[in-house]
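_Backbone structure tokens_
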Amino acid sequence: MFFIVGIFIALFLSLLLLIKKNKSRADKILVLWLILISIDQIFNYLNLTKIIYEYPHLLGVEFGMPIIIGVFLYFYVREITGNPLNDSFKILLYLFPTVFMYLFGIPFYILSGTEKINVFETQGLGYEWYTITLNLVIAISGLAYAVWSLVLIKRHQIKIQNTFSNTDKKELQWLRLLTYGFALIWLLSAFFDNSIIFTAVVVFVLCIAIFGINQLSIFNSNVEPEEKSEKEAIPENQKVTSVDFIKASTSSEKYAKSGLNEDMASEIYTKLKGVMEDSSFYKNEELTLVELSKRLKVHPNHLSQVINEMEGKNFYNYINSLRINEFIKLAQLSENKKYTMISLAYDCGFSTKSTFNKHFKLQTGKTPTEFFNS
């Protein structure tokens, strides 16, 4: 029954995405990924219950499924982190291991139904070479795609800290956790039998459903609309695309190509300090680099460079350090003792308690309670 529930949830999530209007390319990749997981679950269930033996011509259909599921996870992560794969040759290259394993299994596929059942019942007797190769390809590809996906998510998290002052809903933590879960399933496959692995897959699908309920971005696949609205804030003669902007690097090598000289940097920094004296500006919890660059009438890449070099921080940490300073100042005023610390933190621009505590500890080395009791 538990396995059937997992299959039903995977199919239900697929249906939700299929009927979604104005699907992005990331949505389409996600729905294909969920359909592949659904198909793989169905065949796992049929194998575990041996119902598949009633339809022996279907034996082996699922051989390449685990490989292509890993591929589509990687495609989805690339799309949602702003690194879409548009090269048809590379896409085919990623799909090649799956196609190869099906071609490599032709000697099994041409067997009669009775012969196929015999191979399954004898744990692959006579086809050990194929089983070993398949398991090796599945293990290597699954872990490789999980690691590559985690690297892309980490890079995305670094990029958005140069763009947004509040990253709470933009860091793709749900996708990172799902990728960890995906990697765990592949590790389990090396030590446990199919029933344990199938159970893990069902739990994995349940996690996708939970994130779908609690994290709308799992079905609203990217933050592109938010970036597009901000793009209009850039001076007309300095506009960049949202993709270029989110990919702006903080490395000194790329900054050297920005055309920003010392005098320009000093002027921008002076204007920045002047604007930051207005606490109401950085108290805006959704303040972005583009919005600030509009206020200063400078290019966002130049502003990002100045903040990194002059303050030794990225935009995200710089704005939140100002908020912490403002919080400490407000919390020390006697007339504010009637307010809770978290309410003052919200007034200073923080959107969650966890983010406030993280930046307070980062800046002072203490928790708010430890700081004010010392």
